[in-house]
Amino acid sequence: MYQEPKFDENQFAGRKQCAVSANYRGEDEWESTGISFQDLGGMTVKRRKVQQVRRLKTPAWAMSDEQTRAVVLRFVEDRLAIREHTDDNGTRLDRILFTSKGLLPEKKRQLEKLMLEYTRLATVGGSKTILASLAVQIQNRDSEILVLERGLVAVATAIVYRYYRQGANSVQIAEELGIKSPMIRVWLYRMNTAANRLGIGEGSRKVNTTNRRYNREALPGKRSTVRAWPKEKVMVLFAMRTAGVPWRKCAQVLGEVHPTLVSAWRYYFGDLRVFSSRRVPIPKRVGLSELRQRMVYKLRTLFILRSSGKTWTNCAKALGCSVPNVIELWRRHFEM
User: Fold this and answer.
1) Are residues 163 and 101 in the same domain?
2) Is 35 inside a domain boundary?
3) Taking Cα atoms as reference points, which of 247, 240, 243 lies closest to residue 305?
4) What is the H or E stretch that residue 31 is in?
């Protein structure tokens, strides 16, 4: 059947409208902007290019090759728990490569173990919650192995370059690198945190204004609160923990919170564990034995505190008694 010729609407869809234009609508009807070429000659034309706008501005370190190198190396070293940061860039890079290769066999063994466990539970009809958790762990291990094989430094550098210098978003970068977009955003946040520690980031660390001396020594970009602990304080923590003092009492004596003490222990002593003897409940009819055990515990704590230079007031506060009683205990049991 014959049809009158017409324009394909899709062919001209999305075209920008010109300042001087006229469109024929049929039946002697025209649609125009009402601007002639003579009017356009006396006008000022401004053109705007569509740009990608982000909530946060691009940090200065991401636009400098030297600072980007420093931030990426520090970020990767923190991720691999490498505490030495003072060598030259070549030595640090070799150390990172050596540590990454050493982690690969264990990561692959864990991945194989998780896959076997997932297969076993799926065969016998295990819980869907457990299977979903195993699936997430398998995916995480696979991503870790992929990043380690490609090189942590190379992947981190590619993320910084594509995101800050080329304007790509996290989804585009994740598709190119074969990883998840949340991982891209987390890495960018941690690299900005590393830049703040180095003193070249846009943000600033909070300076502690309390009267504790070791916190005033923790300058931004130099050292953290835990790293600035004096040697005496670390020795007190070690002595109290090896003596069986619980974390709550250690936090009270040292004037810290529980998470800070745990972080300090991991920083100075790593995975070292202190196995304390399990306390067996004593029947009430025994009476004096429990009292004697409490006294031994107090005397041990008092000796540790006084040996570390604590005042009588601090000892009394830690033991929950008065200063005269603490002095009397010391004279009775420790003075010759």
Assistant:
1) yes
2) yes
3) 240
4) strand 29-32
Q: What is the per-residue pLDDT across 120-166, written as a single tens digit (0 to 9) for each?
A: 888 888 788 888 888 888 888 888 888 899 889 999 999 999 999 88
pTM above threshold 0.85? no
User: What is the spatial distance between Cα 199 and Cα 221, in angstroms, rounded to a whole number?
Assistant: 4
Same domain, 194 and 242: no
In residues, how long is the chain? 336
Report if residue 9 sits inside a domain: no
- Domain identity same for 64 and 192: yes
pLDDT digits (tens, 9 = 90+) for 179-209: 888 999 999 999 998 898 888 877 654 444 4
Query: For residues 47 and 39, what is the distance between their CA atoms, to the nearest angstrom?
Result: 18
Identify whether the C-beta of residue 109 lies closer than 8 Å to the C-beta of residue 93. no
> Are residues 73 and 42 located together in one domain of the fold?
no
Is residue 52 assigned to a domain?
no
Burial 194-218 (b: 16+ CB within 10 A, else e): bbbbbebbeeebeeeeeeeeeeeeb
Query: Is 26 found in the same domain as 82?
Result: no
Q: Are residues 78 and 42 in the same domain?
A: no
Query: Do 171 and 292 belong together in one domain?
Result: no
Residue 41, both tokens: 């000659």
Residues 150 and 172 in one domain: yes
pLDDT at 186: 92
Q: Of 70, 66, 57, whose CA–CA distance to 203 is shortest? A: 57
Domain of 320 in residue numbering reads as 228-333
Taking the C-alpha atoms of residue 305 and residue 318, their distance in angstroms, rounded to an integer, is: 9
Residue 77, amino acid? E
CA distances (Å), 164 to each of 18, 74, 142, 159, 188, in order?
34, 18, 27, 8, 10
Query: 3-state DSSP: the chain helix, strand, coil percent, rounded to 5?
Result: 60, 5, 40
Structure tokens, 179:
């990883």
Element containing residue 23 per DSSP (H, E)? strand 22-26
Tally of domains within the chain: 3
Residue 83 lies in a domain: yes
Closest CA to 152 of 76, 94, 99: 76
Q: What angle do CA 218, 267, 146 make, to 5 degrees?
A: 110
Tell me the DSSP string of 123-134.
HHT--HHHHHHH
